[in-house]
Amino acid sequence: MKKLLAIFLIVLVVAGCDGRKSAEELFGQTASGVVVVLNEYYYELKLPAGGSLYFTGLDENGDISGLTADEDEVRANRSMLTGTAFFIGSDGTMMTNRHVASPGIDAVTARRSMIKILRLMKMYISEEMTSLSQQYAVLESQKADCVYTDYYGNVYSDQNRLDEINAKQQDLSRRFDALGQSAGEIDDNIDPEGIKINTVCELGVAYNNTFVTTDKDFVEKNPCVVVRISDKEDVDLALLQLKNKKTPEGAHVFTIKGDGDDDGLLTKLFGGSGKNAPLKIDQQLYMLGYNAGLVLANTRQGIKVQMTSGKVTQLPDGQRLLYSIPALQGSSGSPVIDEYGDVVAVNFAKLGTTDNFNFGIPVERIREFIRK
């Protein structure tokens, strides 16, 4: 009887000290490890015949916007997005979503739009070449007016006028040949499969409780690079790393649920509970991130991370975890943690137009991606 009582007392003590924390405790412990990511980006079109064109994205009709051959011009008008990332190592390594680190684009639509543009350019060139040919013919007909014969049969010519006409014809011929060369280059590049599209990104981060006023506060003060992007379509994950390869002193480094932790006596005695136990329906979860990006995060007291909470609404199937944590654009890449502060998912999408049914990439996929 005394042994049973002793075991019961041990269970009570362990249950009361199993490592679970309140929302306030979790926020105080983890907020320093969550950053807002700024990505300034544009797209490069590598043409089959060599050379590159650049654009900023696709418009609502699926047409390429901001197309230019000048990279400085596209850099001045590049697109911008914000997301969330969190530290997972002491070397400045952070985890986020792939679509935050390297925004994708519908390559088929972009190529189709580019082919359409090239064909329109060729049509324009063809019309211009026809116009130049007509102008050349008109000038040629004017030469007859520059030569005349007098009453006695002497032939005279207006040499100044002839020289002027010849100079104009030479200019027309030069322009005609240049357009013909351009038309040939377009023919060489009208190859949908041969057009390659690359995302060109410049990334930086800002920390909780710091001040930002321009994009330079991100990309110049705390620049980072993309280390790795998941090549699996259904695993929207990426790793970033600060260029100095140093996690700031005092910043929280997150652990993934189940990575090298010991549940302790409670789990050993009874199993099924403790920090490494499987997630359960209605289990409490928390998310730390930057909902709506800088719109909400940028306060008079600096950048402020938000904590939102909800419950597990559908058990993970190995590909996703569904929960009722509210989320807005900007929270992509946010860590979703349990009551022990361990990451159980990375937020990446929401269901339809609702803000209260969101998906996270579960720990199985996270571990697989990190260890690859």
Secondary structure blueprint with pairings:
Blueprint: H1 2-16, H2 23-30, E1 34-46, E2 52-55, E3 57-58, E4 64-65, H3 71-76, E5 79-87, E6 93-96, H4 98-101, H5 107-142, E7 147-149, E8 155-157, H6 159-189, E9 196-207, H7 216-219, E10 223-229, E11 238-242, H8 265-270, E12 284-289, H9 294-297, E13 298-299, E14 302-303, E15 306-314, E16 321-323, E17 335-337, E18 343-350, E19 358-362, H10 363-371
Antiparallel strand pairs: 1-2, 1-5, 1-9, 3-4, 5-6, 6-11, 7-8, 9-10, 10-11, 12-15, 12-17, 13-14, 15-16, 16-19, 17-18, 18-19
Helix pairs in contact: 5-6
Pfam family, one: Trypsin_2
Organism: Marseilla massiliensis
InterPro entries: Peptidase_S1_PA, Peptidase_S1_PA_chymotrypsin
Task: Please provide a brief summary of the model.
This protein is an alpha+beta fold.
Q: Which residues form runs of ≥5 with pLDDT under 50?
A: 8-15, 263-271
- How would you state the average pLDDT, rounded? 86
State the order of secondary-structure elements, H for helix, E for strand.
HHEEEEHEEHHEEHEHEEHEHEEEEEEEH
Name the structural class. Answer: alpha+beta
- Rounded to the nearest angstrom, the distance between the terminal CA atoms is 52 Å
Helix content: 25-40%
Rg value: 32 Å
| Multimeric state | single chain
State which percent range the strand residues make up. 25-35%
CATH class of one domain: Mainly Beta
Number of DSSP strand runs: 19
Q: Considering the protein shown, what is the CATH homologous superfamily of one domain?
A: Trypsin-like serine proteases
Summarize this structure as a short list of keywords or feature phrases.
Thrombin, subunit H; elongated; 6-stranded antiparallel barrel; alpha+beta; Trypsin-like peptidase domain-containing protein; 10 helices; Peptidase_S1_PA; 6-stranded antiparallel β-barrel; 372 residues; Peptidase_S1_PA_chymotrypsin
